[in-house]
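Quick note —
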Amino acid sequence: MRHRERNFTGGIFLAGPKEDGPAGSLRRGRGLSLVKTGSAKSRWGAAVAPFLNIAGQIANVHSLYTFTGIRICGAGTSFYEDGSAIATPSALSGGRMTFASMPLAGGQRDYLFVTNGAQIFMSDYVGQTWIVGITPPADGFTLTKIAQKRQTMVHFNNDASAASPYNDLYSGADATQAANWTGLADNPGSTTPADVTSPTVDGNHAVNFPIPASSSAGWTLTKTLDLSTVSGATSPNEDWIVLWVHIDHPARLDQFTLQFSVADTTFNDAYTKDVQVEDTVSKKQLKQQRGLGDLLPVRNQDTYFKDNPPGNPEVLSLQEQLGTVKLIATRKTWTRLRLPKSTFKRSVDGAADAWNNIKAVRIVCNTNSGGAVNVYCELMYLVGSVGKQGDYQGLITYATYSGATLLQRSNANPTPVTLTGLERQGMTWGSLPTSANPFVTHVECWETMGNGAIYFLAGKVTNGTASFTDTVADYTGLFGNTASVLALDTLPTDNAQPLAGQGFIGTPTDIVGPHQGRMWWAGDAGNGAKGRVYYSPQGRPSSVAGFVIVSADNDATQKLIRWNDLLYCFTTKAVFQIIGTDEPFTVSRVMGVQGTLQPRTVVATPFGIFYQATDGIRVFDGTQAPLVGFDALGPVLRGESVENLTSFVGTIAEHAREEYVISDGTQTLGWHLTDHTWRDLGISPTAMYYMDDTDLFLGPNVFLMGLASGVVAFEQPGTTTDYNGTAIPFSVEPVSATWEAGLRKLIQRVYIEANTNGQSLTPTLIIDGVSTTLPTLVTASQSVVEYPIVKPGRVVGLRLEGSLTDRVEIVEIGWDVAD
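Predicted structure written out below.
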């Protein structure tokens, strides 16, 4: 009777005795091909994977990846791109690396992010590396006022040589003293003004305009003025006309009016501003300059800019509040009227702006029956050209720009710098620090609006520039339609640098992204942080925005993995799903699913997430994680040695072609995802990476492995040996034949049908546990070789082993048995 075995596709099966196993299963299956044909065919070899930049190889590679077609390797404490050793921001620890890629900003190219549990850095594709993120600047910069731009309009002073805090407004002989003011003929109260030396603002001279009770009085000064510029700079309509006014009996004055005649002295076309007398004035108004921050609720500051362009009635009201448009009703007090040009009413509707063509100035006062009033005036001037007013606070950040596109920025320096009392004038940012980070291109300056609380981007200077001249308006309503206004960008506070002691406690071992437009980190070994999963701000992978608490320190996070567009975290004890498309993210434990102590075995496949658990290899399908192939390899996965496999705990794994490949560094097993069978690959990788893209030298679908001597493309068609001609180990042993219990039969002969392509195979006959080596099997083509045996036995098996430099195929193994 002849027993035949022609099916070798059942994979390795080591549970039970040699004679037990499903049809086609093998006791040994080392060096077999991934592609199954029914026969036992040896695999293709492992071709040397050449590098673009070196002729030789890189030994002892522990990490493999490809990025924009470039082969990335980690070996020892070195980092390589296409074979070239690339300097890293700090010395590497030699630990295995985890990789992810993501653009730093929308529309930009990807950068490679690398972590190994000791360092985190990023790389481009031209051999440069940087620390991820930017360390915030230190305190130490300054803010100082830029001198106010002022233009004299009327001195009201007949002593041009007198010393004064306003000396810049006095130039040469004064022609605007009392004698040059002409009373209005149709205003009966227009008495003759007089030069006085008291009261005055600066201790020198002023002009007194006396008005009888119950009268209207007015005076005109003929003077040509161009109020469209100030100190050579453009003067927007939001600039102030400043006039110092003192009233000896404020309660007797009902109204004070200031007018400017356009083109001639007739006042038929004029700008007019009526000034009321304020009954009550708060101490704050007397002591502090108003700013936008006083007038806008904090929550609305950023939207107000968009909603209220210049000319809007609400903006004109705001400009009046920022200025001083009422006379203070307090005796012995000078009021500095600050009248925005935009608040003057033009008598000719729709006329073009004509502040550059003023020909005369007029003052008109109205009194009540309370009695006569003396109105003293001094120093009328135009001030401005800068849309700032009030108290300002400033912070700075470092940033990286590519052209106009922001790539990344730091958090701000710790302590704001305050500058008080700006009045339509600029400020200088001085002693700006220089970042030593070569990736930093700019220092950004952030400031509040006057008396505000929210920080807006005012501008930026090139890294290394020590100062910034800031004449940026708080918004367009403070400087016409200027484009030089605070940006709508508000200062982000979620740019913590992803480094130990800053965004992290320790240094994470794992990185994944993008997911929901963010980068994610796990594996922080810092005390109190072992259960954290960190995430970046959306679209900003080089910063840390926050973290979710997945577990506790006694159940440390191990591996993050995306599968079916969902994000899972494997801990030492469990599996968790991180839920949400934006903050706040939540965490849900997948009940009944074990975790892992081998994070580098966690691999996503179309059939689920495979991983080495503490009790075997499992596959997680989103709800449960059953053991994989345990019925076949259970003894080996639980600490036993069976046949040519020893106790197995995987440390690295990869999904390549149709297999989940897992290795302990010496033995490497492949689980066929559709056939559900195991094979022994017969190779000892130190790293693995399957290329979804095309390799420059080796083409598409390349399975890279790091070996002790170099990097190879595993099971590369056309290659018949492993690295540099190393023979491929081959061992095939079908499940043994047997017959009824207690019955022994005579094995007359063994025959083997095979094509060994001239390769030598050693047949070993095993009868009832006793091994006998048979003569070497060598064939040039497919043929049958017979071996006479003539031995009795109940369990009979045959093993074929060899070290191959060419492919072999075992078609059939058979026994002739006599009853």
